[in-house]
Amino acid sequence: MQEKLRKFRKECILFLEHAPTITGGINYNPENLLVKPEFLESMGIQIHWTQRGGDFTAHEPGQLVLYSHVDLKKRNFSIRFYLENLLRSVIDSVRSTWDLQLISDSDSPGLYLESNPSQKICSIGVNFKSFFTSHGIAFNLSNDLKTFRCINPCGRNWTNMTSIKDLGLDFGLHKRDELISCLKKNLCSFLEPINVSSS
After folding, report:
1. Can you give the CATH number for the domain in which 143 is found?
2. Is 154 noted as a catalytic residue in this protein?
């Protein structure tokens, strides 16, 4: 679907959740996949190879995934401007929803707890082919993080991953909806007009 959106340069933002899945980006290191594909299959975990940036990451029920399809050429956006504003939108939304402060790390893309920078709560992997973005971010909300045990996510130990649930914060449906509402508002502040949908 993402290639079709790029072909017709159709902009949209999608909010989704995935079944247990591991994806490898264009910079994946085989050593960071800690189990054999046969084991993943026996556990009902899918594995896919993607054209996003980065190494291995995991998706699970309870994790909020945001796919952002934006025509940088039409909007006259630089890649840096887009990424900075995408991450800022997430940082501001999480602070508004839980009063939780996140920080970015230019050496290891993603978002981390300001109070404990070794703890990662949000992964990012974006493709910029033909100046049209695809893929996006994955925010750990109430997922159990078990799928991460099969990989070194983005080259780090899986124990460095955390979630809103692990932090003992409210992860109920109303909080998920509040986060999505804040994300829509913050994303549209620099992307409007754009179609936004969630499932």
Report:
1. 3.30.930.10
2. yes
- Kindly state the greatest CA–CA separation across the chain: 46
Given the residues 12, 122, 150, 154, select the one marked as catalytic. Answer: 154
User: Which amino acid, 46?
Assistant: Q
Tell me which residue of 65, 102, 88 sits closest to 180, measured CA to CA: 65
Look at the chain and report how many structural domains it folds into.
1
56 is in an annotated binding site: yes
Is residue 52 marked as binding?
yes
One digit per residue, the tens of pLDDT, for the chain of length 199 reads 777 777 778 899 999 999 999 999 999 999 999 999 999 999 999 999 998 988 999 999 999 999 999 999 999 999 999 999 999 999 999 999 999 999 999 888 999 999 999 999 999 999 999 999 999 999 999 999 999 999 999 888 888 999 999 999 999 999 999 999 999 999 999 998 889 887 6
Do the annotations mark residue 168 as ligand-binding? no
- Domain carrying residue 163: 2-198
Contact 103, 54 (CB under 8 A): no
Q: Which alpha helices (H) appear in 9-128, and where do they start and end?
A: 37-42, 72-75, 79-98
